[in-house]
Structure formats: structure tokens, C-alpha cells
UniProtKB/TrEMBL annotation:
UniProt keyword annotations, A-Z: Signal
PROSITE patterns hit by this protein: PROKAR_LIPOPROTEIN
Descriptive protein name: YSC84-related protein
Record Pfam families: Ysc84
Domain Ysc84 actin-binding: 97-179
Organism of provenance: Tropicibacter oceani
Secretion signal span: 1-19
Length: 184
């Protein structure tokens, strides 16, 4: 595939747009990330009470308080968060997304990965960069609705709950997601 000047320009514009959005987790300090994780969990539990049961059944949770995505042909996304095991932060992670295809717009959202088995949690922690894939079951609750029963009784090793969406991004894309351990 050759990269045309137009594609390169669109990619640079998308990157600039993403940088201009700022995902609100600009403070790199651990205390800032932990405070945002606490606020995100409080919001999720208040808005979607069924997630309390999901959290109680999980062996760990990766909480991304705010992920910002933008794209115009080529797009990307970024956020920072913390891995909690037994209610305590054990590591900090960033998430980076890349996408390409017919797309335009930007959005922000929060998400939590619930590791439902010890093996899934250990695979995540041992990997140098965990790529989200087909082994994750997604639950995207609508405002005012509870999570469907199958998400709390699922046998999936990892369940992702996405909530707090803001913005608009439309299109059809291919994308990849990678979680990387960071030192805040």
C-alpha cells in the first residue's frame, strides 16, 4: 500500500485533533490516575449497579477513566488507567488504539476490563503489551438500563464494560488496541 500525500495529511490532521482533545488524564502522577479511577468506579457503580456483582466475581479490573479517540480516515486513541486487584492498584497502564478506514469524528468514553479468571489476569500482567482480541466480551450499557444478565453470568475470561460515551465518530474501520504497563 502506498501512502499518498492526502492520506499522510489526513493522518497528521487526525493526530493533531486527538492531541487537541486531551483526555483529561494529563497529570502523569500516580495519585492523579488513582483519583480518576476511584471517580470512574463510583460513577459506574452508581449508573450501572449490576457492575458491583461483576466486580465482586472478578479477579482484577483494569480501569481506564477516559479514552479519547479521533479520526479522519486514519485515527487513533489514547488513555491511562490502573489495574486493581483486591481493590488496590497494582500497576498503571496506557491504552493506545489505531484505526484506518472510512471514519470521521471524535469521542471520549470510560471502560473497565473485568478479568474473570486468574489465568486471564496473569496473561494480561505477564504480557509486554496486551492486545485486546476475540477473547473479550463487550457490554455497552445504555443510559438508564442495567447490564444484561448474560454479562454477569458469562464464562468469558475478560469482560469489557464501556460507558460514559461523549462525542460522535462515524464510519467503518479496522482497528487495533494495545494495553501497555507504564510508570506514572
Amino acid at each position: 500500500m502506498t501512502v499518498t500525500r492526502r492520506t499522510l495529511t489526513l493522518g497528521l490532521c487526525a493526530t493533531s485533533l486527538l492531541a487537541a482533545c486531551g483526555n483529561g488524564v494529563g497529570g502523569r502522577g500516580a495519585s492523579t490516575i488513582d483519583a480518576r479511577v476511584d471517580a470512574t468506579l463510583s460513577q459506574m457503580y452508581a449508573d450501572y449497579p449490576g457492575t458491583r456483582d461483576l466486580a465482586a466475581k472478578s479477579t482484577g479490573m483494569l480501569v481506564m477513566p477516559l479514552v479519547t479517540e479521533a479520526g479522519f480516515g486514519i485515527g487513533g486513541g489514547f488513555g491511562r488507567g490502573a489495574l486493581r486487584v483486591g481493590g488496590a492498584t497494582v500497576d498503571y497502564y496506557s491504552v493506545a488504539k489505531a484505526s484506518g478506514g472510512l471514519q470521521i469524528g471524535g469521542k471520549q468514553y470510560s471502560h473497565v476490563l473485568f478479568f474473570m479468571t486468574e489465568d486471564a489476569l496473569q496473561t494480561f500482567r505477564r504480557s509486554p503489551g496486551y492486545a485486546a482480541g476475540a477473547n473479550i466480551e463487550y457490554a455497552i450499557p445504555e443510559r438508564g438500563e442495567t447490564l444484561a444478565a448474560e454479562t454477569t453470568t458469562s464464562l468469558a475470561p475478560v469482560i469489557a464494560v464501556i460507558f460514559g460515551q461523549a462525542g460522535l465518530q462515524i464510519g467503518a474501520t479496522l482497528e487495533g488496541v494495545k494495553y501497555t504497563r507504564i510508570i506514572p
